[in-house]
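User: Can you help me understand a structure? I only have the sequence.
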Amino acid sequence: MEPSKLCAELKPALKRVFPTAAKVILHAKMTTYGIEDHLYAYDHLDRPLLPLRPLEMPELQDALREKYGGGYVMIQAA
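Assistant: Let's start by predicting it. Here is the structure, written out as tokens:
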């Protein structure tokens, strides 16, 4: 699976939440309550990152989902 490039308009939002992110994975999972989006970020060494500003994550998830679609999406941030 070839990762998509992060568009320039979403780069500032991503850098606010995950300043050192090199790769972002947006994964939609089916649960008993419906579909839930999960956002994972990794640095250049593929170490998982915690969000610096967790309250801004839902807005970032919505923007990424709107731009790149549903399912399993890998986005190259660096």
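Now, to help you interpret it: The mean pLDDT is 90. Strands lie at 4-5, 23-31, 34-42, 72-76. Let me know which part you'd like to focus on.
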